[in-house]
Design a protein that fits this description.
Layout (H helix, E strand, L loop, with lengths): L3 H13 L12 H8 L3 H13 L3 E4 L3 E4 L2
Antiparallel strand pairs: 1-2
Helix pairs in contact: 1-3, 2-3
């Protein structure tokens, strides 16, 4: 099984637990990759999945933000 769905599940748990508040900037891909000990591309796929679900929005040049 690919690792990115597991990373997406962990990030969903954090969002559901309120670790990242609505409107707040989501941690950078490289920071999450280092924290979770995975490749940045793995985190990028997980973030893309959360964006597709409508849980995050990405602003070019600014990063991702938790949807309000």
């Amino acid at each position: 099984m690919p690792v990115w769905p597991q990373v997406a599940d962990e990030l969903r748990r954090r969002l559901d637990a309120g670790k990242y508040k609505p409107g707040e900037r989501f941690p950078a891909v490289n920071d999450l990759a280092a924290e979770l000990d995975v490749a940045p591309s793995t985190v990028q796929k997980a973030v893309a999945a959360l964006r597709a679900e409508g849980r995050l929005r990405t602003v070019l040049g600014q990063g991702s933000f938790v949807k309000e």
